[in-house]
Amino acid sequence: MGEYRIVADDLTGKEVTELLAFHLSEMHRWSPACKVHAMPVERLRQPDVSFYSAWDGEALAAVGALKHVDETRGELKSMRAAPGYRGKGAGQAILLHLLAEADRRGYRWLGLETGRPDPFQPAIALYTKHGFAECTPFGDYVSDEFSLCMAREL
Predict the structure, then answer these.
(1) pLDDT, tens digit (0-9, with 9 covering 90-100), for 107-134
(2) pLDDT tier at 11, thresholds 50, 70, 90
(3) Is the four-CA dihedral 6, 10, 15, 18 of positive or negative sign?
(4) What CATH number corresponds to the domain at position 33?
(5) Helix, strand, or coil (residue 109)
(6) Is 151 inside any structural domain?
(7) Taking a C-beta distance cutoff of 8 angstroms, is the pair 99, 133 a contact?
(8) What pTM, to 2 d.p., does this model score?
(9) In a 3-state reduction of DSSP, which class is residue 64?
């Protein structure tokens, strides 16, 4: 597992937009259409979302975003490791960065929504490793056989 350089990202770079397009396409492949909560690039550029990218030299390793919910709560969005960086600590590097940013902002709670099926198990394991646990649905989410809401206190 290498060291990653994590930067605030303006979502204009080709590598980042291509990884997000890949992420959206996989979410649509793995999820019922009504359960795809991944944000398109245009939504990730809105002022309530802070987006970050993790780099291994000049190679994009992972992306992730922190959405402002209110003064004490945030939500993780668009967490994705590039295919060649899955299992190499890139997703964990982004997660740790987002946790530190949430703490810096004074958030006391951080939530996320992910899927329950097999393709989502590595993400669930990562979140669990870092203190997230299943929680009741928040925002517009509905927990069911497909969707899983997770949260942790900060």
Answers:
(1) 999 999 999 989 999 999 999 999 999 9
(2) very high
(3) positive
(4) 3.40.630.30
(5) strand
(6) no
(7) no
(8) 0.93
(9) strand
